[in-house]
Structure formats: C-alpha cells, structure tokens
Amino acid sequence: MIAISTTELRKNLKKYLNLATREKVVVRFNKGETVEIVPGQKVTVKDESFDNTRLLEVLKKGEEEIAAGRFTEIKDPKNIWASIL
After folding, report:
1. In degrees rounded to 5, what are phi and psi of residue 65?
2. What is the DSSP string of the chain?
3. Which CATH fold topology does 2-37 show?
4. Where in the sequence of the chain do the CATH 3.40.1620 domains occur?
C-alpha cells in the first residue's frame, strides 16, 4: 500500500493509476479524509450518451435548424449580449 496527497496524484496521475493495478493507493485529502484506489477488474461500460447514432441525429437536427434560419449569429464574441438582445 502507498499513501499520497491529492497534489502528488495530480502531478503523477499516470504513475499512480498504473501502480494501482498492482497495489492499493490511498489518497489523502480534506483534513484526513482518504480515498483508496485499488486493483480491480477491467470494466467495459457502454455509455448511451456517447452513442454515435444519437450524436448524428442531434447534429443533423442542428444543421436543419441553421438551414431554416433558426439561429442567432454572434458577431462579437467579446460582447455576446449585443448579438442576442
């Protein structure tokens, strides 16, 4: 087991994630609280929000909205409200 701070984890994230495949890594934060990164099984998750079919549908709808003229053009990104109002 190895114990580290959140700062150390941020600086060397890849190192500690690789290390966690072999042993427990304990991260200390917020006045003594800890979180453990432990070796585990590889998990595959299918996230419905990243389904390419759904993304393509949303993009197609957006293109249709633009073609129909239903959009607001932002002329000056530094002054968005002038274009909206």
Report:
1. -60, -45
2. -EEEEHHHHHHTHHHHHHHTTTS-EEEEETTTEEEEE----------GGG-HHHHHHHHHHHHHHHHTT-----S-GGGHHHHH-
3. YefM-like fold (3.40.1620)
4. 2-37
Q: How does pLDDT run across 61-83, given as a tens digit for each residue?
A: 999 999 999 988 888 888 888 88
Which residue do the tokens 């759904």 mark? 54
- 49, pLDDT greater than 80: no
Percent of the chain with pLDDT over 70: 86
**What are the structure tokens assigned to 78, written together?**
């530094």
Position 41 confidence tier, pLDDT thresholds 50, 70, 90: low
The residue type at 20: A
